[in-house]
Amino acid sequence: MTQEIEKEINQLTLKELSLDAAKLWSQIEEATQSEEEGLVEQLVQNLIAVQDGIETKIDAIAWVVDQLNLDLEVWEERKARVVELHDQIIKRRKTQLSQIKQGLIHLHTVGLINDKSIGKTREIEIRDNPPKVAKLLIEVDDEDFPSEFRNIKYLANNQAILDAYKTGKDVSNIAEITIGKQVRFQVKSGRKNVNKQTTT
Asked: Could you write out the DSSP letters of every residue in 100-154?
């Protein structure tokens, strides 16, 4: 194989290489039928070169995926540390804000400030919050609990629907089932079922 052909193969995408391999198989079949031995030998050499290029390209794609996964892990860790730092600051600020508000409510409760305290440009007003249910005195499922105060929610059991679908039950009138695709990258092994797999 000349350096020009090798360079050309290296520049092709996996899709282009796969199409070339399929085309070469076709040409080999045609040349075999026409009994052109020299041409068959050349086409087989070209096919071997293309298949080698495909294998190299597959390894390169898998290597890039490994690097991207490692990079993602690093950035996820950095993000987690930054989020943790911001969460701590937010928590401190919320605590400070709550302490100021509770202090003002205490001053109002003991009569040291009025409902409205006026400054030079701002004012502070103490007023009642809207009413809220603090505690139920009867359990919701108790028969004495008035039905008018119940909020019944029905949620679909998606897992049960999928389990039924997997067993062959027709659920087409209940739900639309979709099956996506995923790509797995694995380390090549001589033995089956011992491949280390990572899923994207």
From this structure: HHHHHHHHHHTTSS-SEEE-SS-EEE--PPPP-----SS-TTSTTS-GGG-----
Q: Among 17-26, 132-141, 144-153, name the one with the lowest average pLDDT.
A: 17-26
Q: Tell me the pairing of strands 116-118 and 123-125.
A: antiparallel
Q: How far apart are CA 199 and CA 196, in angstroms?
A: 10
Alpha carbon distance 24, 40 (integer Å): 10
Cα–Cα distance between 11 and 9 in angstroms, integer? 5
Is residue 192's pLDDT more than 70? no
Residues 6+ apart with CB under 8 A from 104: 113, 124, 126
pLDDT at 37: 65
pLDDT given at position 193: 45
Q: Which residues, in sequence order, are CB contacts of 29 under 8 Å at separation 6+? A: none
